[in-house]
Amino acid sequence: MDTSFTPEDLAFRDEVREFLSRSYDEELQARLASGEPQVYKQAVIDWQKRLHEKGWIAPNWPVEYGGTGWDATRQFIYDSERAAAGVRDVVPFGLKMVGPVLYTFGTQEQKDRFLPAILASDEWWCQGYSEPGSGSDLASLKTRAVLDGDEYVVTGAKIWTTYAQYADWIFCLVRTSSEGKKQEGISFLLIDMKSPGVKVNPIVSIDNHHSLNEVEFNEVRVPVANRIGEQDKGWTYAKALLAHERTSIAGVADTKRGLAQIRDFAAQEINGGRSLLSDPMFQARMSDIEIELMALEFTELRVLAAVASGGAPGAESSLLKIKGTELQQAVQSLTMEVAAYYQGVLPNELTAEQLGHEFGSKARQSYMYGRAATIYGGSNEVQKNIIAKAVLGL
Amino acid sequence: MNFEFSEEQVMLRDSVARFIQDDYSFDTRKAIAHSEEGMSRDNWRTFAELGWLSIPFAEEHGGFGGGPVDIMLVMEQLGKGLVLEPYLATVLLFGGLLQKGGSAELQSEHIPKIIDGSCLGAFAYLERQSRFELADVATTAKAVDGGYRLDGEKVVVFNGANADQLIVSARTSGEQSDESGISLFLVPADAAGVEKLDYRMMDGQLVANLVFSGVEVPAANLVGQPGEGFALMQAVILEATMALGAEAVGIMEQLNAKTLEYTKTRKQFDVAIGSFQALQHRMVETFMAYEQTKSLLYRAVCAFTDEKEDAATAVHALKVMVDRAGKLVFGEAIQLHGGMGLTDELDIGHFAKRLMMINTTFGNGDYHQAQFNTLRYN
Known about the structure:
The structure holds 2 protein chains of 2 kinds.
Chain A: H1 7-23, H2 26-32, H3 37-54, H4 72-84, H5 92-105, H6 108-119, E1 125-128, E2 144-148, E3 151-159, E4 169-175, E5 186-192, E6 198-204, E7 210-223, E8 227-228, H7 234-248, H8 252-268, E9 270-271, E10 274-275, H9 280-308, H10 316-339, H11 352-355, H12 360-370, H13 380-390
Parallel strand pairs in A: 1-4
Antiparallel strand pairs in A: 2-3, 3-7, 4-5, 5-8, 6-7, 9-10
Helix pairs in contact in A: 1-4, 2-3, 4-8, 4-9, 5-6, 5-7, 7-10, 8-9, 8-10, 9-10, 10-12, 10-13
Chain B: H1 7-23, H2 26-34, H3 41-49, H4 68-80, H5 87-101, H6 104-115, E1 121-124, E2 140-144, E3 147-158, E4 165-171, E5 182-188, E6 194-200, E7 206-218, E8 222-223, H7 229-265, E9 267-268, E10 271-272, H8 277-305, H9 311-337, H10 348-360, H11 365-377
Parallel strand pairs in B: 1-4
Antiparallel strand pairs in B: 2-3, 3-7, 4-5, 5-8, 6-7, 9-10
């Protein structure tokens, strides 16, 4: 058992720090903070292209497909440094979700066609899983794909599709058969968002932002060549993807950064002549979170180390998802307590200078949208069902 | 980065696990708990023969030269068996103090006897008023010709009933709660002026209150420098707290496994109660609590060998988690076993009571959380 860093690891850490501080510059950060959708989108793409040039865009991919070949220690170092520097993680839909499905289950043609554009951020992906009638019971999905020559004709609707308004492609679960078990008639299709019959309807969420959408498919024609693997076997591929997704949405490093920020905020907030940080009640609330997070960091390392030595993320990724999202929400909630009255301030009413406070409005937006974390990727209650069945054998 | 154990470590773990499996059934343990000494001398000899008593000691004294990982592996298994023999008191506390602070003479005289099983030891540090504060020491040690004279009382001394040798904290200078001025002394349990009152605790262990009335010890019996005992006992108790965390993790594993097994076989409403989602989700919570505690245990163990992290911070975090997760795990184990969970006959309650005793030993969760907060936020 050994978690110490070698001199090479420490040199790597310095390289990561140096790269991040140089490349994630103020000009880029200003564009990322822009409320203007196209400015924001281009800034995200620019940042990901810088990572791609550095060769660090896909740490979780095998080297032969453009991954970094980092061991568990380096993945951990990279993610810790990234989060500690306040650097956003990559948009997951291409790099963390459909990418691994493509290199694992795709044909050579599909790999050649799609992987380079994912790595270079030349194509933006979104995820078509949930439907208006299929949430936690994902396998009940009804979007139909009917074979017509060498094309499928797709009709139905997907919902909660993050950044569909930016996307060039969507990966979809569609029903190709209603025979047998409901999991068995599902296929995995890649659909060009520019195809005739695709319509994106925006959904404004509880944080007053537009990132979610409903995507309608009205007799959209999709080449059979865009199907991953076999027809009716899409559930198998989707499940593999979900395990990857759950591992990455634990967000331990980013939650750690959130907690460090709370500490800074609380040190500045004065209550009754004393800093909030020195208040024993507040300290207890903070350490309730920090101690669970210290544990989860090692739980994640244990999973990472197991994956690095040949395992695949399995049901333990459900544990990471449950605990990770609970802690994200705990941090968001505590940040709101620190913000006090200023949590209620709406954006663009007064400047931070006029108010004397800067994080209240952002804290609320994170807190409100953060409610999604225990719902998406399979609600936490569904994750508990998965652990009960797959780990506990119930 | 890896979380695997060396071949030697796996052998050590398996040898303790085999002993528990073959020679430490719940009924055997019950008989030992009710015996006069509350422990088995035969078992202690076996521990010596298998080399477990030598683990933390330096090779020059015949020790195994083991580290925190080895201790963790042994304690986890001892926890699974609810082992009553005084491993913590003799090897980790008494032995740990000698190993870390004892003079060469004290070490070469006593450590080989710990290793061969002929010496049982105890650390007498708690007092009636001291609760969890190690520095609250009212027992006095006055310098007399060629040595010291000890007066005072120590309470809840683990293995105090059977110990041959004691290490006693006493004040040589300073005020009652000062960290400086505390000295540690090796005192033979049969020294003139030592009075002993034995009693049993809820987890089956036999402890003692010890009264010291004018007990004289030579200066050579000082463990560590005079007046500087606090840092020494703090360091030894920090490692022992990690070890207790390992014992707790072993107990939680047992409780979860037994509860899971029970819900798969116990039928109500014509089905196994484990098929009810309300119960499944509770068992998922206890599974996660166990995994999270184990992660903090690993973190604490690694902190002792890895400079990235302060070991005290990691151990405080672990002890907080042992408190919270432990209560959840034994609480659910009793609830899911229904009425049977309340019986003395079933082992569940005995695991619960050991967890409760672990919880309060060396400071409860709230105490360690306050320590954690001081280190992290002040």
